[in-house]
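Objective 1.3, modelling of assemblies. Example input:
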Amino acid sequence: MSALSASWLTFGVLTGGIGWLGFGLASYVLFLVFVFMVTAETVSVTAATDRVATVVIVSGAVLLMIPLVWLVGYVTLKGIKGLTLHFFFDDQRGITPVLPSTAGGGAHAIIGTLQQVGLALVWAVPLGVLAAVFLNESRSRWRRPVRIFVDAMSGLPSVIAGLFIFAVLILPYAKSIRLFSFNGFMASLALAMMMLPTITRTVEVVLRLVPDGLREASLALGSSKARTVWSVVLPTARTGITTAVVLGVARAVGETAPLLFTAFGYDLTNANPFDGPQESLPLFVYRNIRKPDVNAVERGFTAAFVLMLLVIGLFALARYVGRDRQRRRVGRRFHLRLPMKGDQPEIGSASQ
Amino acid sequence: MTDTIDITGTVPSVEREPIELIGGPPPGAATLEARDACAWFGDRLVLEGVDLMMPAGQVTALIGPSGCGKSTFIRMLNRMHELVPSAALSGQVLLDGVDVYERGTRAQDVRMRVGMVFQKPNPFPAMSIRDNVLSGLKLARIKCKQKDAVVERALVRASLWREVRDRLDSPGGALSGGQQQRLCIARSLAVQPNVLLMDEPCSALDPTSTGRVEETIAELRDQVTVVIVTHNMQQAHRVSDTCAFFLAAENEPGRVVEQGATSRMFSSPDDPRTLAYVEGRFG
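Predicted structure (tokens):
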């Protein structure tokens, strides 16, 4: 602390004109030097190195937290004003620009999000799990191309997914087949394209964690390979697969771009995902924040806040499911946990 | 049946008549015989010219130092060897006179008749004790009406019944290492196999658990042919009727140096290397 104030003083005198960034950087460096010198004097050089490293790491972590906290705090502050119970039960029927932001709500968007993401899950989960099983359990020589393809797909810009559906299904068929016009079903297809690589890769990582001993044990009992996967490998990896699904949902639930040309957006409630344009939370945010009146912008922030809560809730759920019942069950129950943010090295080494 | 157990904890004798399994292995122990069996991993020949007779209803121990192909050999007997990529083999393995590698014989059927217990206990973590025992029936699509009887008989034969009969629905992974290994034995026995292969079943267990597993092996003798790989000379001496000594010279494939009745192998073997090994002078 004394080191901090000393450096502060020194640089307050010496660098009066450099500006706050230079001042901050310089005082930080000098702070490190002071910490090192003081600790080296009182304890030892090793302890001083250790102390400096600790300081650097902690300050790096704090620095990283600032934008995150800022973002979450900003959206919360702006969004919480317009958040009333009405938001969960009303749609935008009869809303004019003069009405306050608390009027009307986003129920139609919430319904749309739930239906589109739910439908997307129906397509993406079986396909993703199948692909992961293929990548991990088969000995096909097509595994490498498929893996590269999945990797490439995970880098696919989301707007392309939406455009693809638009160009391939909606544009040519919308006039003749009603199912292929703007609706929630088309949106779910685009979202499934976004989810698929996430689910495939995470499930593959989890399947790789299932010990080979279990597969051998199953085969040695006279089981076929397919049956081994279905009855032994997948149940063993169940918690991890659930986590993968939740992560896939969290990936898709906040996507706006794939919905622009598929669900299209709609101000009223449309509970039928197979017919007619639908709203969804990200679309609601996008459409309202662009409107030229203050109340609509506030509504957009409210929806953003709800969406953020939803994503945070989903991640919390993923962690909770991934944490598994180890502590609640007696004994050393065997479990597979998906490597998550907290333990980066595992996911890094596994995805090589 | 559990209601009739008296407080002294004695186990009710399980009826000897077989439980009917539809689609399961034929009843009784089977003879296994290897003829000129060779095995490769890639280009490397690891096992050469093994001729070995494993008589029905007896315990055959495979002994020898590490890396001499015992485990490879035992995995050839129930066609687990071929699961390793790059693995190859030649020769015959006759199960009651029929080659298990014959064209048209399904590996699944062979593995159903020739059960296997691994070095490391590997109960299915997602299943309860009861489901673990029944997993063989489920996985091999064997139908059975008396599931409870199968569970009880298999656990009794693996001498685990008394310890787990009150918690059949708790997860299999919650047991101790020795209990897990006996659970794996029970799992293999539930399908009523003709042969039971054991690949160093006691190497991860403490002496007490080892003793229990050995008792189990002794009790199994009349119902199933047992082939056991072990590094423990005393264990081979205690549990086996016949014995085969594997040895691999440096950079050479493993071969069977000598085989015969256990008593003779341990007292007056023909080959000096066998004598040296069983007396603990090398390996």
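Chain B is about 30% helix and 25% strand.
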